Amino acid sequence: MKDLFGAALLDYQNGHYTEDIITSTSISDNDILPLPYLFRDYKDMPKLEQKALNLAKGTILDVGCGAGSHSLYLQKKNLNVKAIDISQGAIDVCKLRGVKNTQLKHILDETETFDTLLLLMNGTGIFEALSQVSKYLNHLKSLLKPNGQILIDSSDIKYMYEDDDGGFWIDTNANYYGELDYFLSYKGENEVPIKWLYLDFNTLKLACETVGLQCELVLEGDHFEYLARLS
Ligand SMILES: C[S@@+](CC[C@H](N)C(=O)[O-])C[C@H]1O[C@@H](n2cnc3c(N)ncnc32)[C@H](O)[C@@H]1O
After folding, report:
1. Which pTM value belongs to this model?
2. Atom 13, ligand 1: which residue's CA is nearest?
3. CA of 126 to the centre of ligand 1 (A)
4. With CB atoms 3.0 to 4.6 Å apart as the test, which of 10, 51, 114, 136 could cross-link to 127 if both were Cys?
């Protein structure tokens, strides 16, 4: 990974904001990811994220923390939060912004236990593929203290396969429709493509049942997105 995401966050943090990140996927064209969005305040966060922050309690792990916006909010509420990410640039930005406990770490390398695990802005993305969901859920479960919870958001992206006439062009012989290749570029440079998973709620719930986690729908957004609580 070239860490263009981290480079963009660092540029923004250091006052060198000139352009945004461009993303695309295997089923969608170029889209702009505005850098200021990654530095959002509580008031500018989607309702699902605000709800997740309100439900967070005890010791908290912010998984894939990015620029640390959620961690900073929780820290200001005097909650004990640790922020991890695989992007060195993201971790540098978290430190510059004042996140006290932050580490460059892949979620599968985390071993501490927490009362709340937070995975926001399509939290299921880091599972990468449907075949890996059980492995990730089992690992997340192993990081929970007694009565702990996982707060995770995602979307049912079936709508992205809809024709103008209301039909769907999902290839039923292909992989699960939420498995996408994700492309990112910044300042004309292309990042190494990654796999990124969107999980509809029912598929997440079924996967949770197989690993002994309860999965509850907390809130739905206006555009097929949802927040789930696993315990
Ligand atoms: C869509 S961004 C969300 C950032 C932040 N949570 C937010 O809402 O602004 C996903 C983040 O997850 C990080 N990430 C991806 N895979 C990860 C993994 N396996 N372990 C930890 N972090 C990961 C990425 O580097 C990126 O910062």
Report:
1. 0.97
2. 64
3. 7
4. 136
Mean pLDDT of the chain: 96
What's the gap in Å between 222 CA and the centre of ligand 1?
Answer: 23
Q: Closest by alpha carbon to 67, among 27, 87, 94?
A: 94
Ligand 1 lining (C-beta closer than 6 Å): 5, 38, 63-66, 69, 84-87, 90, 106-107, 120-121, 126
Residue 11, CA distances (Å) to 5, 39, 73, 78, 140 in order: 10, 12, 22, 29, 32
C-alpha of residue 198 to centroid of ligand 1, in Å: 14
Tens of pLDDT, residues 5-51: 999 999 999 999 999 999 999 999 999 999 999 999 999 999 999 99
Which residues contact residue 192 at a Cβ distance below 8 angstroms, ignoring those fewer than 6 apart? 1, 2
What's the pLDDT score for residue 140?
98
Is the pLDDT reported for residue 169 higher than 80? Answer: no
- How far does residue 202's CA lie from ligand 1's centre (Å)? 23
